[in-house]
Write a structure and sequence with these properties.
The structure is a homotetramer. Chain A is of the alpha+beta class. Chain A is 25% helix and 23% strand. Chain A has a single domain, classed as 4-Layer Sandwich (Chorismate synthase, AroC fold). In chain A, the strands form 6 sheets. The first copy, chain A, has a 5-stranded antiparallel β-sheet with strand order 1-2-3-7-4, with helices on one face. In chain A, α1 (37-47) crosses α3 and α1 crosses α7 (327-349).
């Protein structure tokens, strides 16, 4: 239970951090979509470790191989199986966590729930599991592209540094994926400072989707908002999600929060977009806007208080290679999850009317 | 598609605001649970309209009838069907919205998605649909009570007024369901002021669950966090959800956010609970803590800009009886959704080990 | 768990034989389908008890009320809730089965599984549950009719009497729903003879669907054949299902069983239809043909060997009103289940290609 | 859509006949189950091609590799990913079917549904897909073994030759997997004769499960019978399934078909087992008995009438290596599907009572 997501466009991820391989199976991708390893690799390369000085130096190749479901350059409607082999996995540094639980990590809860766990590199609870999300998300994005839907994300805030300008082209030009080059520079420095301190910092990512037509979302339980909430809070280290004005709505008045309608060249639009592109759980035709908070990396190279398997109080010093902030690498993961939600709702919406 | 929630303990709500009745079917409730209409009605009475001066005066009886699945005072394992009949429904005030879309409501998006809609009272998108959530949530709460799990919620913030003290007993003593009697008084005044202005205000609700044992949650996609996100963002007017420290984590450092472990009389505990009771998507044994933001009520008695079915720019003045703030009535709905998530994960967790 | 069927077009039945009401919720019916109680009642009237001398004299009205999901004559895309109230339920005759298990019935297995049961009239395991199948099946049939798909069934064999001619118009002209009027007459006599003997007889029903376009079915697990198998074997008293030539295929040779293809006015057809209209789990465009075996009614007014709740050997004489053969009344149920399968696959197939 | 099966214990197969690999992901296997490649390979070896003169000479190694979900000899609760690489795949013989549809195969229906297909070796519709069923079924069988449930199957009839004696030990001693050594000899001859004639034959397989405790099955839609129907009819070439007396029940009387209850050393048993071990869709504690019919292999080396992609009438002579009867190799597949059904219902039943 639990490693699949989606109704029609449905993924099932598998694999552990230091096992022989990780992968994902996509069941329900429509046939006829142009697809190749290059298309998927493009998104994976944006996710991978070792890409810059602000991320972990671990050299994962993350290379995707398509094992099924694609024939002569097109999806066939059969399950698409994607795999990557783990190459550079050094488990020895993780011996200490075989018996001690890392604070902020899932070591203890996996141990209680399952009675055992693959502790190496965090095993199943490692963020390396997000490989399958990004890989399958790339296919979802390709499907969405056939109807011009464009999903992208960026770091909006890192610790207390907030972006103040937006230039989409800047996002991939800097190490922290911030669309404001000035803020980006300050963010990079903040990450380096945290690294220096053997500490870590959190931040906020914004995810947008352009050109989503009105009508996507399946109320009352599988609302667009609800599926975004599900998807985003399944990402490791994410502790909150908001739509449109989000938590700011708490201090707003109704007459200000409501987005009035008007006609724009025969198309229904809203004057503002406080709702973040959805009403009653269904896309309105305006830009989809969501934000997530990413907690500071749990792995910090400082001595922390913990307990061991035998129930003794202990301390632990977690070594290994870790990102001082997860945010930059979480950007493509968040994009992928948004794309998976939208791809599923796009297909479900085909059954909305006779 | 879309009106069911849960894997094993699964609900399916149905009904429109001004149709003959509303209801919910619960499929998958274990047999042997003591159950009666009184148990369910208790929760429904906390939700119902007309209970105070800060809520809408509509006189709904909201009376539940159990139609199946309960025999001689116990659940039988068969689907439980709950119904309430709509009595006091005056649809005439809604004639104006047959052809014009209310800003902030789902009128437009339902129209686009389905090509038609029952406009009366908001039809399917009305918050009246939450009757079924609260009714089924009462059964989930009863199931959870067999293992001592206790779910409750309260208004933490209304517009800019924040609670500063916590006394659980206070929650149901005031009209806004705030556990701080001083803040509660200010909140009541804020609601009345908004009403006076034909306006509405938003706020923040906190939901807690005590005594959840470690082990509940189905990573990597059906994490406890993720299901909470799904459940909460499916509630009308909710625009954000956060777990534990939530969005505050953005500005924290890892060494401060991590909750260290210690032994407490043979039981593993954490020193702090910044994680809100879950790690890696699985309950840790600490208190479950989530918060949601509720937008200001969309129905405000002010003229607003909109369009009509024929694509003309129009204005609309929404009449009818509406709560100036949804927050107080959303409290039992949020409790219900949390209970539904936990009941399902409780049952799923029985399959975690051989 | 367990009372829902379908992926997109999904039903959830509820209710017990002698409870206050029975019903079904259909979630996922597309909007825009003309719908009324009359359309549904038409199918229900074909199912109901007391319609002839060969069925039970119990006077159920079986009257359907639409509680939601239909507005001004059309489905709205919202869940459709259908209900019927139990009127003529005399539970006293069932007192004996409170403590003793009827052979051939589900009394014992429900007792073991759930630890208790509503014994009255068989409770949840009563064939009265099929009301919801037929009611929702009527909606599925209406949806299929929009694409000219026509589902019908008939009694092919009753005990050892087999039909030898086929005239569809005859099906509803006789009490046993056999398309061969001569065989029908012999079947009626066989039913009456069984009734005279306080015994019961079984038979075989054939279900067909005309005009199903090629392409419906979701291999490899949700093949058209597989969903038919699931649907049919969920009907009370059904003990087997076969497709096309079915069990006769055991003694055939490949060159004879294969249906060769040919072009017929630009359309691909097969010369024969031994496959029953599906290849590789996907409809081929030929007539869908399935057959089910219905066991003889378990309720026979004869003393039978059994045990009681306390684990004592006992005998039991089941009284009450029962059909000497379930077959005639199972015909509309089988039609309904086939329609539910096809409606779901029709909608799912909309996602087969980009 | 469509390549997954199960609710809690859920599999997702993937892969094409001549792609680089095939596999299956098992999500929801409980932690703590002893597991190894040897355990899985044991079942796979019973399925594999090239094992005898009555099966195809293709040399598949079918070697399983566990990629995830097993750590230090035990399942961890994480998804289990199993893979086998396709080595000996010669696609050139399949060039002819790129443009022409083989009668009895899924070439035409896949083409219509998906607009394209991987034609090589039958692609996704090849029986090679059953590798994942058997591999995951081996894990289901291991889980069932922890509660002493034992699943096995055998060929009961091949063409017109029926078994007359039963000795379980004989099943794996002969090439056709028949528990009657005399009948087995005749069956082998029938297979060889069919091969000689470039033809193929069908047959009947019986599947049994011993020691299934009473209580497994989720009425009213996910009855044990219904899930068996779904599972069995999803196997390639299976055209029918029956439970207990199955189609023979058509000609039986109720008093004979009913299985009377009696006490046997404190345990409730039935005198006969015409019901095949289930009542009302729930296991009764008696032996589970199901039978399936397997059509004669569609690939026969004879010229057959067909059409091509452009809509011209054509003939086709299918070359390649094929089993003259699928039955012997379908035995482990049928066992696997029965095990998958039972494993899922075993886990679901843990939620039947509070």
């Amino acid at each position: 239970m639990g490693s699949s997501f989606g109704n029609i466009f449905r993924i099932n991820t598998w694999g552990e951090s230091h096992g022989p391989a990780l992968g994902v199976v996509i069941d329900g991708c429509p046939a006829g979509l142009p697809m190749s390893e290059e298309i998927i690799q493009h998104d994976l390369d944006r996710r991978r470790v070792g890409q810059s000085k602000v991320t972990s130096p671990r050299q994962e190749r993350d290379r995707v191989t398509i094992l099924s479901g694609v024939f002569e350059g097109f999806t066939t409607g059969a399950p698409i199986s994607l795999i990557t082999y783990n190459a550079d996995a050094d488990s020895s540094k993780y011996d200490i966590i075989r018996d001690r639980f890392r604070p902020g990590h899932a070591d203890y809860t996996y141990h209680v729930k399952y009675g055992r766990r693959d502790h190496r590199g965090g095993g199943r609870s490692s963020a390396r599991e997000t490989w399958g999300r990004v890989a399958s998300g790339a296919i979802a994005r390709a499907l969405l592209a056939t109807v011009d839907v464009d999903v992208y994300a960026f770091v909006r805030q890192l610790n207390s540094i907030k972006m103040e300008t937006f230039d989409r082209a800047e996002i991939d030009r800097n190490l922290v994926r911030c669309p404001d080059p000035v803020a980006a520079q300050a963010m990079v420095e903040a990450v380096m400072a945290a690294k220096e301190d053997n500490d870590s910092i959190g931040g906020i990512i914004e995810i947008r989707a352009d050109n989503v037509p009105p009508g996507w979302g399946e109320p009352t339980m599988d609302k667009l908002d609800a599926l975004i909430g599900h998807a985003m809070l399944s990402i490791p280290a994410v502790k909150g999600v908001e739509i449109g004005m989000g938590f700011e709505a708490a201090t707003m008045h109704g007459k200000d929060h409501n987005d009035g309608f008007y006609m724009d060249n025969g198309r229904v639009r809203t004057i503002s977009n406080n709702a973040g592109g959805m009403l009653g759980g269904i896309s309105s035709g305006e830009q989809i806007v969501a934000r997530i908070v990413v907690k500071p990396t749990s792995s910090v190279s400082q001595e922390q208080q913990t307990v061991d398997l035998e129930g003794n109080d202990r301390t632990i010093l977690v070594e290994g290679r870790h990102d001082p902030s997860i945010c930059p690498r979480a950007v493509p993961v968040a994009e992928a999850m948004m794309a998976l939600v939208l791809a599923d709702l796009y297909l479900l919406n085909r059954a909305a009317q006779i």
